[in-house]
# Entry
Amino acid sequence: MQAVDVIVREVGLRDGLQIHPTFMPTDRKIAWIEAEAAAGVTEIEVTSYVPPKLIPQFVDAEEVTRRALDVRSLTVAALIPNSRGAERGIALGVHKLNFVMSVSRTHNLKNVRREREESVTDFKKIVEMVRTHRAGERAKVVGGLSTALGCSYEGRVPVADVVKYALQLAAAGADEIVVADTVGYADPVQVRTVFKAVMAELDPLPVAAHFHDTRGTGLANVAAALECGVRRFDASLAGLGGCPFAPGASGNIVMDDLCFMLDSMGLRTGVDLEKLLQVRSIVHEALPDIEMHGALARAGLPRNYVRAGEQRAA
Amino acid sequence: MQAVDVIVREVGLRDGLQIHPTFMPTDRKIAWIEAEAAAGVTEIEVTSYVPPKLIPQFVDAEEVTRRALDVRSLTVAALIPNSRGAERGIALGVHKLNFVMSVSRTHNLKNVRREREESVTDFKKIVEMVRTHRAGERAKVVGGLSTALGCSYEGRVPVADVVKYALQLAAAGADEIVVADTVGYADPVQVRTVFKAVMAELDPLPVAAHFHDTRGTGLANVAAALECGVRRFDASLAGLGGCPFAPGASGNIVMDDLCFMLDSMGLRTGVDLEKLLQVRSIVHEALPDIEMHGALARAGLPRNYVRAGEQRAA
# Structure
């Protein structure tokens, strides 16, 4: 595998599809995964182990996971809301279990129907399950902190709370912490404050950033997180995602625009920008009514564009 | 006037409208200017003194300027491509003459049909004209450097060339220099490199930033420029502008999203975000077919949003 400076992770198959009313055929999901892996994306959150009754889009979670695991060089991740989800992932041999809880109490109650302390307890149980599982390589367990930069119920979220739950998940045995701006409230100043505080406490545990572009600040927040030393970013192709309560609102930061910005900054992502842009047609053809964002797709690369690897060589 | 930390300047009436095929009625332009001034925007580039034969959108440049000058508290600016444009502006008593030349030779030849040295000579003449004009308060003369962060004909533009022409315009008597990413090629690393170099040479002359969001990096570039000390930014309401060669491509950075990001960062702009968002309907009603961008307009302000002034007070 080639050297990269920043790891970009596709979360569109989970965060992008979970609110979309139309089922994306399993074959199309796999085509998306395979094409994006071929474009150089090395980690994809392929599905969510929530009950299909809650989110029918993930009724094929088992098949998607199995077939994604066949893609060489890909780190296959899946979201788990609780230990029951972890059981499914461990049985499948998924590489990464992306556990999620919210830093704000109200959002955690609404989203996973429990107190934050119960989420932490469940997380400990998941780490224990993974450690005692015998077969195959141990899955990595990721502690995701939703609403870490603002909550649609509570507004601003205290930095101290983000640090508190990050420390609790780290102490429980997380292999990585993800700090998420679930509702797109963050600005660069806030990003620097929160990430500096969390990273100072957790170092050397990897801390990743999950930003939404709901209010246009997504890539500015990436630049701020980069300055803090963050080198792992979630994004979704074409910015799929959005918010069920804000029609037309942008979703996750746009993977294609993220890769362009990083590459242009001289940071190698390992992703071939032209190949990545071509993957958009797979999504568009499968889900013609899904709203797709992205500035690079409309404008194209700058003239005589110099890729990050070539900048290094020059 | 209340204290502000950052000056945001509306350029949509010029940069946003100049490529739009439909004429915006003069009364609607004035309504836009008045409403945005009432929302707290203190500086607007209201028109361009190019020959109306070249851009019919600006056939009403004289009337728009005169009526904009009636708006109390507003700094009225207009683009001038050459000394003939400056004559018109001086006769009207406009506050700011925004001269523009391109750092890249090819773009300057295509855009204003002359060598860069001829542009600099013309700029000297304009400064002289302004200084010798007797009536009223002397207009400020702004030296704008287009394609300073990339050129759609030449690709990357040497930083040394940006510094060179910035110094020449400063030496000629510019009151301010505007560094422009005309075609939206810039990334935050490049922004830091170029603005640091220019500002180190020009200090204490004000240096402003004019970014386009063509490839999604606009607000990230603003954040990078802020770190360099830039405190003057051009933007257009709803990101009007675009590029005639890239259908659907974004134009200038979105004024509404810019003001939100700055305000959220605790930087006072003097702009009332809700009032600013309401101005969009004036543009939409006058030009129903113009493409309007903007994330804040779709998503709304965060819950319990705390304004920059209130952050200071708290």
The two ends of chain B are 22 Å apart (CA to CA). Chain B touches chain A through 48 residues (CB under 8 Å). Chain B has a mean pLDDT of 94.
